[in-house]
Design goal:
The chain is built from eight helices and ten strands. By secondary structure, it is of the alpha/beta class. Strand 8, helix 6 and strand 9 form a beta-alpha-beta unit. The chain is globular and about 40 Å long. Regulates expression of the glpD operon. In the presence of glycerol 3-phosphate (G3P) causes antitermination of transcription of glpD at the inverted repeat of the leader region to enhance its transcription. Binds and stabilizes glpD leader mRNA.
Length: about 190
């Protein structure tokens, strides 16, 4: 079962959010917007609490989002997985045996079609569909690729979470602490 049945993947942007999140019963969490110098202590803190970090490579300040960065993160910090828009980062993450999540931005039909071609090459473990409030697109991407979906972006209510899951998403990422608390009993 994906993420041990956890349908909400809390995404944190700072230490205050992380401290609050560590008190909740989530096993997997997403680390956004950090600095390369903070990655090791944050991942170690998360691990010390029995939780697993998914690092968003593109949002780590001071680190280029390329294959070398992915290799470094996988080897030096050993998170549960990496998230990126870049196919080369996803491929390197898979080579290292970690969860590889490719972000797909649903900007327009052309972007979606280009995304499908990219996904054929990268073959991620999961696709994070952004924005995650388009149930019909969650269903389409899941059906067309056969790859499990995570919905993210613009998730503002419990109904948004439920609709994304009903459309076929395995999980939903959100920075909304109220939603973390609301769904914590299901973690």
């Amino acid at each position: 079962m994906a993420f041990q049945g956890q349908t909400v993947l809390p995404a944190v942007r700072g230490m205050k959010q992380l401290e609050r999140l560590l008190e909740l019963p989530y096993e997997y969490l997403v680390l956004l917007d950090t600095h390369i110098g903070q990655v090791r202590p944050i991942v170690e803190l998360i691990r010390s609490r029995g939780k697993k970090a998914l690092l968003h490579v593109d949002l780590i300040e001071g680190l280029k989002n390329d294959e070398a960065a992915a290799e470094f993160l996988c080897q030096a910090f050993k998170p549960a997985g990496l998230i990126s828009t870049r196919a080369s980062v996803v491929a390197k993450t898979k080579q290292n045996g970690l969860i590889a999540i490719q972000r797909l931005f649903l900007l327009d039909t052309s972007a979606v079609e280009k995304g499908y071609k990219l996904l054929e090459r990268s073959k991620p473990d999961y696709i994070e569909v952004m924005p995650g409030v388009l149930p019909f697109m969650i269903a389409e991407v899941r059906e067309r690729t056969g790859i499990p979906i995570i919905a993210g972006g613009l998730i503002r209510s419990g109904a948004d979470v439920e609709q994304a899951v009903a459309a076929g998403a395995e999980a939903v990422t959100t920075t909304d602490m109220a939603l973390w608390k609301h769904f914590a009993g299901r973690a």
